[in-house]
Design a protein that fits this description.
This protein is α+β, with helices and mostly antiparallel strands. The chain has 10 helices and 9 strands. It comes from Tenacibaculum geojense.
């Protein structure tokens, strides 16, 4: 048995903001992927994955939801027969490792599932997002459902607000000098503690004001520029966003990268922002001249996501 492939995702813009109803833009990232597989003798990562699936099964079996039902007998049988999720998606890196797993389980075991081949109306997209949020909250405590949705559809998704999401197109990549890239912090981040820090900060009126008056406005401007291919304007807005994130999201940026972040803003060689919830994993970088950014960041592992 080998299931279809489900890809990683990158939330280009909108981390944390989407929890509070501002815009977001997520794109599939095909360098990393996962699929359901089976083996008789499990060891190492496969064994761990199988044990995790058994816990996930218990969670789904006790889910009291009118949204979705599963062929639980089949799922239990497959897990007992050595099913695991074989994935190259790094965990705790902000690129949707649990999202791809959730998408694969829904795809194989959900009854009356909404398929990718249907006409995906806004209502169907919202229903899928809700189903995935319910499923993925097993892993994170609270989930927007966006990672699994992105992985399941393998399409860029534009979040206008909680109730308004759409599949979208992004400008095709060019062989230019500019790039969006991943910077490897070489630390694992955990989503739940980071989201808890954010929720506590949201109790502060000044922080809430900053989210709505600065963070959300710069994020929305970045998304608009990116979708329209306004590269010059995009970098101006990414710089503003990078400054706001550095000033207000310090706990989510690993300590060793505060200086690296500041250096990008000072030299304009690159601008950094959070990739997912932060706390470790990948940091997302934007550079008008990727060669320059590579020089500045020569001590770090970089990976290109998109070229301008």
């Amino acid at each position: 048995m080998k299931g279809p492939l489900f890809y990683a995702k990158i939330l280009l813009f909108g981390e944390y903001g989407i929890i509070k109803d501002s815009k977001g833009l997520a794109i599939p990232f095909n360098s990393y992927k996962g699929a359901l597989k089976s083996a008789q003798n499990l060891n190492g990562e496969a064994k761990k994955s199988n044990e995790s699936l058994a816990k996930f099964y218990n969670y789904l079996a006790n889910l009291n939801s009118t949204l979705v039902s599963f062929d639980l007998n089949e799922l239990k049988k497959d897990i007992d027969n050595g099913m695991y999720f074989d994935s190259s998606i790094p965990q705790g890196y902000g690129v949707g490792s649990s999202g791809a797993l959730v998408a694969s389980i829904y795809d194989k075991y959900a009854q009356n599932k909404i398929t990718v081949l249907e006409n995906l109306t806004r209502d169907k997209l919202l229903a899928l997002k809700q189903i995935f949020a319910t499923m993925e909250s097993f892993f994170h405590g609270k989930s927007s459902g966006l990672d699994p949705l992105n992985s399941y559809l393998s399409l860029p998704i534009l979040i206008n607000s909680k109730e308004n999401i759409e599949a979208t197109g992004i400008p095709s990549q060019k062989e230019g000098k500019g790039a969006v890239f991943l910077l490897d912090s070489e630390q694992v981040g955990e989503t739940e503690p980071m989201v808890n820090i954010f929720m506590n900060k949201m109790k502060n009126e000044g922080f809430r004001k900053m989210i709505s008056e600065e963070f959300a406005i710069h994020t929305d401007a970045c998304i608009e520029d990116f979708l329209k291919g306004n590269v010059k304007s995009l970098f101006g807005n990414v710089k503003k966003l990078s400054k706001v994130v550095l000033a207000n999201f310090k706990p989510m940026i690993p300590d060793a990268f505060h200086k690296v972040w500041e250096n990008g803003l000072a030299t304009n060689d690159y601008y950094l922002k959070l990739c997912g919830s932060g706390g470790g994993g990948y940091i997302l970088g934007f550079a008008e001249d990727f060669d320059k950014a590579q020089q500045s960041l020569k001590d770090y592992k970089l990976e290109i996501v998109y070229r301008f």
